[in-house]
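FW: tagging you since you asked about this chain on Friday. Here's the raw sequence from the shared folder, copied in full. Didn't touch anything.
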Amino acid sequence: MATAHIRSHDNQVHFIGDIRPAIQDPFIEALQNAATYPSEIIELHICSPGGTIETTENILYVMRTIGKPIYSYIHNTPFYSGVASAASVIISNTHHRYMYRNATFMIHHARIAGNVIEDENDILYWMQHTDYDYDVLNDLIKKEKELSATETHQLGFVDEII
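HL: got it, structure written out here
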C-alpha cells in the first residue's frame, strides 16, 4: 500500500495517494481547515488510484455539508497517473471539475476484497453526472479503461481541461 500525502494551505487541499481509512480524518481535517480560509471556494487537488467505499462516503458527507463550493483539480504524478473509482466519485461531487492534460480518469464497479460488485447503482450514479445513457456507461464501467483528459471531458466527467 502506497503512502498518502495530504496537506492544506489557505483554501486548498492537496491529496496524493489511496483513499483509505488511515487518511479519512486528516483528509476531513484538511477540508475543514480550507473552509475556514476567507475564500468563496475550496480547491481540492487530487491524484489517487482509488480507495475504499466507506472512507469515500465519509469524506463525501463532509464535502456535502462543508458550506462552500469545492472545485476539484485532477493531477498526474510519476507515481499515480490520475484518478480512479473512489477518487472519481469524490471529483464528481464537486461544483467544478478541472483536469490536467496529462492526467487520466477511470470508473469501474466497486470491489470488496478484490471481488467485483456489479451494482446497478454505479451506473445510475454516473447517469446523474453525465449526459450518457445506461448502456454507454455500463460499457465504460465494464471496460475499466483509463480515459485521457480529452475523453474524460468529452464524456462529461470533467468540466475543463487545463
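FW: Residues 21-36 form the longest helix (16 residues).
HL: agreed, and The CA atoms of residues 45 and 73 lie 5 Å apart.
FW: great, closing this out.
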